[in-house]
Structure formats: C-alpha cells, structure tokens
Amino acid sequence: MTLIQTRQEDILLKTNARYSYETPRLEKIVLNMGLGRGSKKEIAFIHLFFLALTGHKASSTYSSKAVLEMGIRRGALRGAKMTLRKKRALSFLEKLNTIYLPSEVAFKGILSNGKTGSHLHLQIKKPGALPEIQGTFVFSQLPPLDIAICMQNGDPTLFLSGLGFPFICSV
Questions:
Q1: Which of 148 and 112 is assigned the larger pLDDT?
Q2: Which of 24, 79, 120, 171 fits a disulfide with 115 by CB distance 3.0 to 4.6 angstroms?
Q3: pTM higher than 0.90, yes or no?
Q4: Quick one: how far is CA 165 from the chain centroid?
Q5: Helices (H), ranges, the chain
Q6: For strand 145-152 and strand 119-124, is the pairing parallel, antiparallel, or unpaired?
Q7: What is the C-alpha to C-alpha distance for residues 115 and 6, in angstroms, rounded to an integer?
Q8: Structural domain spans, the chain
Q9: Model pLDDT, residue 26
C-alpha cells in the first residue's frame, strides 16, 4: 500500500465520507512562469528550468492581447507552463513538500487563504535557489514560479495536510 493510499483512507475517516470517490483527490498541478517582455533566449532558459525541475518539456505561452503601455504585441512569447497529472503530479507534490518548500527562505508554512474553491495557489519567489537548480548561474535571475494545485471533490487543504504539508491559519 502506497503513502497516498494510506493517506486517502485517513482522509476518508476525517471527512465522514461513505465512499472513497467522495474524498478529495489530486486532479492536476499546473506550473507557470511568466516573463512579461521576454526574449527567446530567456524563454529557452525557462524551458530548461522546467526540464531540470520535473524532467518534462514545458509549453510556451503567448499573449492574447496587445498592451501598448507595456510594449507587448499580440502573439508575443510571454512565458511557459506545464501541467502534471497522475504519477507525475504525485511525485512533484512529494518533492514540493520535502525539498522545495523547506528550502524556500523564511518558509513557515502555507497560508490557508491562498485557496479558491478546489484550487490552491502557491508561489516560489526565487526558483533559482531550489536545491536541484542551485549550482547553475543561468537560472539565478528567473521570475517567480506559480504553482496551482487542483483537486476534485473538495478542500485541497484537507488533502495536503493529510500528506504532511504545513499550513498556517490566516488571521
């Protein structure tokens, strides 16, 4: 029995659900990194970052509108994103809890007010300081990494606290 299966049984008991499909389940994790105005070289560094972080290729994102004040044209490269599902999402979630979040400077826990419905949004301010990436100077000036954890059937804080994620109650 895996760790996720045992945690799923614990969550089943906590939620008083009658069936296992009524408990919160991980649907996907979306990783996003935007540049604003970025060159193809910077986008290539972001793609290398995602490849080093997860071992999988990211897709490029483009602007849908032109913003004259910022000098952004319609269809211009803006960043990269990646969607992780099933085993890839679970392995990233495990790395996030054991390696990435504790290495974040002054990390005390996840604020529980960062959730909207069945999604939880996190941001790693300096992704170049992550342990897997730390040795290369290429990734030292990366923009923040946005992480969206999407759940099925309920509250993401219940599922993640069952996996051992530290949460801070918002005051």
A1: 148
A2: 120
A3: no
A4: 13
A5: 3-15, 40-54, 86-95, 101-103, 156-162
A6: antiparallel
A7: 24
A8: 25-165
A9: 83
